[in-house]
Model the fold of this input.
Amino acid sequence: MNKLFPTHEIGSLAKPAWRVKGYRGEPLSESEIAEAVDWGQRLGMVGVNELIKILKKRERTPEDRRAILEWSARFVIRFFENAGLDIVFDGEQWRSEMYEHVIRNVEGFKFLGYVKSFDYRYFNKAACISKPKYVKPFYVEEFIFTRKNTSREVKVPFTGPYTLVDWTFNEYYEKKLGGKIKDFKRRKMEARGEFLFDLIKEVIRPEIGRLVEAEARWIQIDEPAATTNPSAEEMELFVEAFNETVKGFNCIFSLHNCYSNYEVLAKYASQLRNCSQLALEFANRDSRQTGNNEVRVGYRELKLFEDYGFKGKYGLGVIDVHTDFVEPPELVRDRILYAAKVVGDPNRIYVSTDCGLRTRTWEVSFAKLKNMVLGAELARKALVQS
Amino acid sequence: MIGCYVTGILPRPKELVEATRAYDRRKISEEELEKAFKEATIKVIEAQMSAGLSYVTDGMLKWQDLLRPFTENLEGIKAGALARWFNNNTFYRKPIVQSEIGLKKDITAELAYIEHLPNNIPWKIILPAPYTLARLSENKFYKNEGELMFSYAEALKTAIESLTRKGFKYIQLSDPAIVYNPLKEPISRDIIVDAKEALKTVVKNAKARTCLQTFFGDFSQIMPEALDFPVDDLGIDFYETNLEKLKEYKFDKGAALGLVDARNSLVEDENEIFTVAKEIIESIYPSKIHSLFICPNCDLEFLPWEKAEEKIRVISRVAKRLRAELGIHE
Done:
């Protein structure tokens, strides 16, 4: 991109009630339908009446449900465009969730039920019960739809293999090695490696291949689990997995990781091959004061990545996705300018949210993204002036 | 004796998962939630009894994390932000230590539903060890982590005194932090000595069997010092511990062998677990077997309840076979 500080959102945006209930075939309240009408107007959507008609139906056909998905994707694409983002996607409106969406569309897995994440929050965890098998594309349609509906650059968020493996019980491979390796610890590790590289070969690369065929130019590998196991052995496995995933494709790849141990990630980031950009969460760690000096405590770890020799770009998280606080443009500007100073080259800074905005309302998300775009503009001006 | 028991928080059965989620969305009342907790507690106690475990716990279904009853009930501490629970995809609330730690009230009710525990099987309680408590806290008050650990130890001692008065016969102190060492920096011998001193304080007046249960890391790191810890049994996670290294040591105290993997849903092959257990026993107890327990390597809460229940039956069957094979009574 020619412009300095291009802006993008990481991936997800909240699904409106009309998308969730509408897709499930549940009745919608008047206020839920009104939300579609209001946002339709705000975003200047054409033909929203068609959507409203579907939402008001008592019974919805499979075509209706499909239309609802497409509408919510269209809404979000326009949402991101209107907020002024340079790179857009559909806010993952077609996906149930980053883990489930992939696992449900691949063979070899079985969901076992809810396990605790924390407090009264759980996640539906699957076990790998046979060799993973690719049965159908799971991101391609969504990508093609997005491409058709925007003239801006498109980035495809893609749940990474290391995270899929880390979040899945490894029954098949541990069973396969049962009796063959006596030491349980070594067996577990060996089985993990086999699972990971089979998944990459059988599922992940075939899907990337189809995306590239469909002319995807930028794929963002999401690996929230990257530093869950900070041991050298595991981090090397993670690096190898990334490199194997992206190897040989004619496409731009980036890595997104958040709420993690960046001291650990920084040490290995320079070994990621063909990783044009690291999209990282910083705003969550930062103060809210303006200034591009020591008040930028959240961005200190950027230097670690530099010291360890990462040469790519940064997708700089300047928006905290876990709070309704709307970052003023001046704060965004200062975060960008500080990072540009640390990195020493403004061309290596892209501007982003810490993570997907799915936990915020559209109202808050829109205000945050608008200010992010304004902040990037202020930063460009400040650089020109200096 | 060769016994068996669980070593941590059990998973919430499906009905309870649903109830807690409904409560979170304000769809059921506090009374309804409490009823669901009680019913599930009865269910998981019965499962342990019917499997034939040597000690039963109440399942700790209410515990949001291993530290939470202390984070919420000790004076001087407040619950902080979520932090990753070792190398798991689960999270705990960091205890923030703001002033002097104290335990002035009886927190038994916060720790277990004793009214549902049976009277024909001895009861086990599981608590965080002082080292892990201190390690995972954010210390804003004490001079150093050591001081903090000793304050925790005093509070734990008080809690244990009332727990044993109420009838608990087995006290397990869970100490993952003392062995979790992913960056493989050699653990300082001073830390091990300090941890041992803190344990001494904790179990001083404990009129019960005691155990230091380690998991998520290689137990052999804290050997041979661990053999001098003032507890009856030492718990080992065999999915993290180098088997050959451990077999170099002879034990003169009890051991809890974590041979069933609570972090994978694959149900173990009983024959294999039996064979490995026998091998371990033969090398760590060349002449006389001390007390021995077959158990999961860590909290079974990483699994859905049905899988945990299957694994509970595995530990029981392995213990039974070992008793028969070695001619040892329960």
Notes: Chain B has one domain: 2-12+53-326. The first strand of chain B starts at residue 2 and ends at 4. The two ends of chain B are 5 Å apart (CA to CA).
